[in-house]
Amino acid sequence: MSRSSLKQNLLGFLRKQPNAEERRQAAERDLINAESALGRTLFGDVAPGHQREFFMHKKNVWIWHEDGRTIRYEVRQNGVYKKVDDSGYRKVTGVELDHFRTATNAYLKLVKSRIYQ
Fold first, then answer.
1. What angle do CA 86, 81, 25 make, to 5 degrees?
2. pTM above 0.85, yes or no
């Protein structure tokens, strides 16, 4: 079963419970935090006093956050687009696109094996 199918099954179950929306939001936050904890390890150690996050926020949207800078990647039909902080989107190409693909594939493999076994 895919990561998104497992996530949807869990979130669907939680919607049917009392306080379903609160439980769904809490479960989604917990899953993102668990995934991000794994995602930050893909790029080596984080120096003391620094912060790094890398996770799939929702389908086709990836977040990289490090030391106050946030990069949002959107996977669209015509390519991958990147937005740094409050700047506009620009298309990701070349080596940067290769690195993005490598990172997202490694992330999905790691998250699937550690969280969604």
1. 70
2. no
